[in-house]
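Q: Could you fold this chain for me?
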Amino acid sequence: MSSGTASAGGVGHASGAPRSRGNKLTLVGLTAATKQVEVNVTSPRGFLLNTWHLGPAPPAALAWPAILPTLSTAGGGGGTPIQPIVVKVNSDGSLVITSPCGDGSPDVVWTVSATGSVSAVLGSTKLVAAGPSLMVLAIHKNDFSQLNEENDRSYSVATDTLLGWVAAGKPTYTTSGDVVTVTIKGSYTKAVGEFELVFGGNGLLRCSFDFTWSGATVDPRQIGVVFDLPRVVDNLSWQRRGQFSYYSKTDIGRNAGFDVQPNPCDTFFGSPWSTCGYSPATLWADDTTPAGSNDFRSTRDALLSYSLCAQPAQKQCVRLLGNGTTNGELGTLSGRAWLNGSGVRMLGATLSNEGGNSFTQPIAVLPHVRVAPRAVVAGEVQLIVHS
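A: Sure. Below is the predicted structure, expressed as structure tokens.
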């Protein structure tokens, strides 16, 4: 645990039966001056399972991941100062936000449409086409429906982003120091609320969502935001903190993957009877649907980073950022990608519970989360567009 500007470590203790709630957690070594506590939960084998921050929110200076350059200087400090972000307001109420880079790379030009849809161009390459869209994906009605042949071969993609978006006015913005904050208010057919987009230098974007649920009660499998990318942005790479140090090279849950291609139907076969689905001639990870191979479209949890790139070797990318813990607390993240017609969709999920298969869920995550009318659906996703 840590507190204030100084930090101290210790072991907390709680008593109670497994899976019980409301137990008192006793923390030792704290002083009266303590203002913030970070609680890290580890398994008996030493794996980091979860992180909570108790007390006031971290100061703004701590909001961006430490692995990134600072917002004010190139390369993380001591470099050429980054020029201020420029905001242009168009006659229709849309915004053009230029996010400069201080290392000689092309600027990232963001556009926020009058209805709140975001796109991004790096140099002459469009990397983000639209988004964010709120996703509240329901759990399978049958816990094992993904094993049902009829369901499996329907090829319907689990992409239940909410429908019926209506913007409540034009986007508004404020500037403060090195960042521009854009607020987008509106409603879906099942939720009403707002997105807050914080744009920084070096192509940084922090996307927060805060909605009140107005639909029927639902047990969500995943909650998060989806961004639409051009079809060419399909080189998938990721790094994550798994529960094991070794995975086979074909395990879709491995800790790292680089330049994984979607390889949709017709990639391996040419005859009509074998263009999609399972085949003993390929690895299970390579079996395909129109949305891509199993390896491409599987959810990765406990992310350190998750990139979709227009070029191999992680060039011209949209990268999700996470801190590697494994549930829906602030700052944790899962990622998923799939082909969607002529484009690619990328989900940054602040809640991901592996569908209905409770035996695969992380230990520190309760089996299910229920979203009832008037419940708050909120979270935060951080990403960077870079060359």
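A (continued): The mean pLDDT is 78.
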